[in-house]
Design goal:
mainly alpha
């Protein structure tokens, strides 16, 4: 288990990231993937489709060239949206990039690989034809590649927020501190040198006086006797 400089236990590591790191990109890629997988089946409702222009008609070309990359993009978006592991989130990002690239180049490889007929745009004007091209294949694929690459760029950098998230302290219930025992105050007798002068004068014996003191005392006694 990793530890901070303070010695507190931490959890996580270099592969841990906050879930919000790929949330926005993942949500957008999820929407783009759902669009790419469902538009060939619901587009005929609004007269916006490739042939065959019938609702909910399954063809091999639609399965390989639209449903498959759309589903892969949606799965990658979900991984980016929900994962807290850097490796898993980056796998989702690469999955979306490859799916977006397949939207762009898939029709060129459909014939040699025998993946079916992608169909032709049901459009009279060039404006609608270009709109169908962008909404179904090249424009959609380019948008998916851009968002997926943006997500990979964010995931490849270990930011300060990632480090703080990986080294967040482990939450543990600490036991309540036990009540401290009452400290007993021990009174000590004051040292001898702390006695007052009066006590010393009462307890100590009178000091021996010198010869000068004796003569002075005798003189005082004689004077007082007179």
């Amino acid at each position: 288990m990793n530890k901070l400089d303070t010695g507190a236990p931490v959890r996580g590591g270099r592969m841990q990231i906050p879930r919000s790191r790929g949330a926005a990109s993942g949500f957008l890629l999820l929407l783009l993937g759902v669009w790419g997988a469902l538009i060939p089946f619901v587009g005929p409702y609004i007269d916006f489709a490739y042939t065959p222009d019938q609702e909910w008609i399954w063809t091999t070309g639609r399965g390989w060239l639209e449903v498959l990359p759309g589903a892969a993009t949606a799965v990658g978006g979900v991984l980016l949206l929900t994962s807290r592991n850097r490796a898993t989130a980056m796998f989702g990002g690469w999955l979306t990039v490859l799916a977006g690239a397949w939207f762009v180049v898939g029709r060129a490889l459909a014939g040699p690989l025998g993946l079916g007929d992608p169909g032709a745009p049901v459009a009279i004007t060039d404006t609608k034809r270009v709109s169908l091209e962008l909404a179904y294949f090249s424009g959609l694929g380019a948008a998916i590649v851009f968002v997926g690459a943006l997500a990979l760029g964010r995931l490849s950098v270990r930011s300060l927020r990632d480090i703080q998230y990986a080294h967040r302290p482990v939450t543990a219930t600490e036991p309540a501190p036990a009540s401290e025992p009452a400290t007993e105050t021990i009174e000590t007798a004051p040292p001898k040198h702390a006695l007052s002068e009066i006590d010393v004068s009462e307890t100590e014996e009178p000091r021996h006086q010198g010869f000068g003191g004796l003569f002075r005392a005798n003189r005082e006694t004689t004077t007082s006797g007179r």
